[in-house]
Specification:
Two copies of one chain form a homodimer. By secondary structure, chain A is α/β, with parallel strands linked by helices. Chain A has two domains: 4-47 and 301-394, Aspartate Aminotransferase, domain 1, CATH 3.90.1150; 49-294, Aspartate Aminotransferase, domain 2 (3-Layer(aba) Sandwich), CATH 3.40.640. Chain A is 41% helix and 12% strand. Chain A contains 14 helices and twelve strands. Chain A has helices at residues 4-9, 15-30, 49-61, 64-67, 77-91, 105-117, 134-139, 159-165, 188-205, 266-280, 287-294, 304-319, 342-350, 376-394, and strands at residues 36-37, 100-103, 123-127, 144-148, 170-176, 210-214, 237-242, 255-259, 332-333, 354-355, 357-358, 368-371. The termini of chain A are far apart.
Chain lengths: 398, 398
C-alpha cells in the first residue's frame, strides 16, 4: 500500500519553501520586483563562463561513448583524482583518488556519509542553528538526530551544551560551516576545541565518532574571516561538498565526499558508498557534469555581490537596532527578531512584502534568516521598507 | 560505527561486474579486441547528434541561471509536460504533467516507485529471469523480494508459479519488459493475463497491488515483435523508464516514473516521490540533462546494430545446437548452457576468451546471458571460437 510515512511528510512542509511560494504568489500580484524576497538560498550570479565552455568543448570534442558512458560505481577516476589534487594543493591535505566519491550535491554526500558511519538506533548530533533538511536526511539513515542548542552570542559552538549532549550512542557529529542560517564561519579555535572533545570522547566510549562536515559555502568566505579546513583538525572526518553555490550550479546536482586519509577504514569508505548507492537508487551524478567540473575545480562564480550585500545589510540592521552577529561568509544573516515569537515577526514582515524565514525552522526560535543572494539594487530598495516595518510594528527610536 | 550491512554488501559482488572486470584484465594481456566480451549491457552506439546539439544550444543560448537553477522538488515542469505529451501521442495514454517525475535513470525510478507503494515487511514479486540488482533495490525499501520461477519454454510469465506465489502481503509486482537477460518482450496476451490476475487478487485481498514496470529497453524492440505498452492494461501501474539505452546516455543518469492517471492516489504520487527524495538524498537529475532530453524525446540512437547482432547470434547458436528463445528486443540473448552448472559452463568459456554471465545471477540457473551490444565485426569473429569451445568442451556433432 502507499507508504504512509512518506505521505505524512507532505504535511510537514518546509517553512523555507512556504515562504518562497508566498513570495512568488505575491510577486504575481504586485510584480516580483516589489517583493523583498529574502527567503531562498538560491545563487543570484551565473556560473563562470569557463564552466559553460567546458561543457560545450566536452560535447563537441569528446567521444560521446566516453562522455556519456557509465561511471564506475565509485564515480569517475579522473574527476576523483582532480578533486583530491585540488584539495591537497589548497588545504595541505593528502587525499588520494580513493578518498573522493562524487555525489548528487551535498545532499547526496551527506546521505552517503551518514549511512556509512552510523547504524540504525545510533545518534547524530548537530548544532543549532542548523539546516532543517538534516531532519529527513538523518531519519533516512535510521539514526536519530539530536540538536545541541545554539550559542546565540557568537553562533560558534555551545560547548557546554555539546558536552552535556555527548553520550555513547553518538556515532557522528554533523556540522555546517560556513553556516546556514547564521552566516558564521567556525573559527580555528572552535574546530580545535571540537576535535579535542571528540578525541576525548572516542577514547572514553571506546569507539569511533565521525565528524561529517557539510561545506557547500566553503568558497563564500569574506575578507578577514578565519576559515579553517575542518578535516585538517580531526582524523575521523568526512568533508561533504557541493558545487551548487561556488559555481552557481544548484540544478546540476554535483558534489562529493572527501574521506580523511587518516580516518578509520579510509580506503574502504568509497567502496561502501558505492554499495549504499545500490540501495538508495543513486548511481553517481551525471558523467558529463563530473567531467565539466573536473575542468574548473579552482574557479568560482563572481561571488563579490554576496560580500557587498553582507556589508550593507549588516550595517543597516545594526542602525535599526537589531542584535545581529556579523556573518563571515555564505549569503545568509540571522538577526534576533524584535519579539520573542519569530513566526509572528515574520508574519508581520509579510505585510510590508518583506519575506524572511523564522529561526525556529533552524532549531533557533527568536531569530530570523535573511538570504541576501539577490541583487544589491533590491537590497538597497528594501531598506526604507525595513525601516518602516520596524518603526510601525515595534515603535520608533529603536 | 561503520555500517556493517553496507560493508558486507562488498563481499556479495555483482557477478556481471566480476565477469566484466575479468574481460578488461584479460584485454590488457592479449588486447581487448581479442576478448569476446559479452558481459556488460553497455550501449555500443553513440547518442544521436540531436542530443549533443541540444546540450550545446542550451549552454550557449539559455540563461545559465535558468539552465542550472534548482529543479522544483518534483522535477522540471516543462520536461514533465513534454514526457507526458510524448507518451500520450505514442501509446494512447492520458498522462498529465503531474504524473511524470524525472529520476536518476531507471534505478532511481524503481527506488522511488517501490518506496512509494510498499511498506516495510510487505512483499514485492518479480519474475525470473530478472536483473540481479532488484535484490538491493527492494532491500533498500524494507520490503522483501520474492522471485517467481521462470517459464523457460518461452520466457514469458510462468502463471502457475505466479498464482501460487501471490498472497495478501504482496504490495507490488516488479516486471521488466523487454527483458534483461532473456531479450524476450512480454506479449499482449501475457500482459492482459497478468492484469487479470492482479485485478482479481486486488478484489480478493481488498487492497491495491501495484505493477511497477521497468522499461529501459522499450525502444529496442525488433521488427515483428508484439510489444504492448504495459500501463495501458492495468490501472495501478507505474512505468519506470531510462534514456540510458535508447539515447545511449547511461552515464547521464536520466529517466522517469510515469504514474497511470487511473492509479490510486495518482495525483499525489509525484508529491510523495519528492518527499522520498529528501530521505534518500536524491534531488532530481541534472537540470541541463532534463532540458536536453526534453528536446529529443522522440529520437533514439541508431539501434539497428542490435537487431543485426540478434539475427546473427541467434542463428549461430541454433546451428551449434543450443536451446534458445529468439529475443524480440534488448541486446541480450539467454541460451541454455550445455551443462547443468551454468557457472562451470561460463568458466570453461573463459578459456576461449568468451565472456558470458551465468544465468544463476538472474535467478535462472542452467542458462547464460550474452550481451551483444558490441560491434558486428566482433560478433562474427567470435563464431569460430564459439564453435571450437562447443566442440572441444562438449563433444562434436551437437
Amino acid at each position: 500500500m502507499i507508504n504512509q510515512e512518506f505521505r505524512k511528510m507532505i504535511e510537514g512542509k518546509s517553512v523555507i519553501r512556504e515562504q518562497s511560494e508566498y513570495a512568488t504568489a505575491r510577486g504575481r500580484e504586485i510584480g516580483y520586483e516589489n517583493v523583498f524576497d529574502f527567503s531562498l538560498g538560491n545563487p543570484s550570479v551565473p556560473c563562470p563562463p569557463e564552466y559553460t565552455q567546458a561543457v560545450v568543448d566536452l560535447h563537441l570534442r569528446e567521444d560521446p561513448m566516453v562522455l556519456h558512458g557509465y561511471s564506475p560505481s565509485q564515480s569517475l577516476p579522473s574527476t576523483r583524482a582532480a578533486v583530491a589534487e585540488s584539495l591537497n594543493r589548497r588545504f595541505g591535505m593528502d587525499y588520494r583518488m580513493e578518498h573522493i566519491f562524487m555525489t548528487s550535491g551535498a545532499t547526496g554526500a551527506i546521505a552517503h556519509a551518514l549511512r556509512c558511519v552510523t547504524c540504525p538506533g545510533e545518534q547524530v548530533l548537530t548544532f543549532a542553528p542548523y539546516f532543517g533538511e538534516y531532519g529527513p536526511y538523518v531519519a533516512g539513515t535510521g539514526a536519530e538526530l539530536k540538536v545541541v542548542p545554539a550559542d546565540t552570542e557568537s553562533f560558534q559552538i555551545n560547548f557546554d551544551a555539546f558536552e552535556k549532549a555527548m553520550n555513547p550512542k553518538v556515532a557522528a557529529v554533523l556540522l555546517n560551516t560556513p553556516n546556514n542560517p547564521s552566516g558564521v564561519v567556525y573559527s580555528t579555535d572552535t574546530i580545535r576545541r571540537l576535535a579535542r572533545v571528540l578525541t576525548e570522547k572516542q577514547r572514553e566510549y571506546g569507539h569511533d565518532i565521525f565528524l561529517v562536515s557539510d561545506e557547500p559555502y566553503r568558497e563564500i568566505v569574506f575578507e578577514g574571516t578565519d576559515a579553517p579546513f575542518v578535516s585538517a583538525f580531526y582524523d575521523n572526518s568526512l568533508c561533504c561538498y557541493s558545487f551548487s553555490k561556488s559555481l552557481s550550479l544548484p540544478g546540476e546536482r554535483i558534489g562529493y565526499v572527501a574521506v580523511n586519509p587518516r580516518c578509520t577504514d579510509a580506503d574502504l569508505m568509497a567502496v561502501i558508498f558505492s554499495q549504499i548507492s545500490r540501495k538508495t537508487g543513486h548511481n553517481c551524478p551525471s558523467s558529463s557534469v563530473q567531467l565539466a567540473v573536473e575542468r574548473v575545480l579552482d574557479k568560482t562564480s563572481d561571488l563579490s555581490v554576496y560580500e557587498r550585500n553582507r556589508d550593507l545589510i549588516y550595517d543597516e540592521l545594526v542602525k535599526l537596532g537589531f542584535r545581529v552577529v556579523r556573518p563571515g561568509g555564505t549569503f545568509y544573516i540571522f538577526p534576533q527578531a524584535l519579539e520573542e515569537d519569530d513566526v509572528a515577526f515574520c508574519e508581520k514582515a509579510k505585510k510590508y512584502d518583506l519575506i524572511f524565514v523564522p529561526g525556529s525552522a533552524f532549531g533557533c526560535p527568536g531569530y530570523f534568516r535573511m538570504a541576501y543572494c539577490i541583487g544589491t539594487e533590491k537590497v538597497l530598495r528594501s531598506f526604507p521598507v525595513l525601516e518602516r516595518f520596524v518603526r510601525e510594528e515595534y515603535g520608533a527610536g529603536r
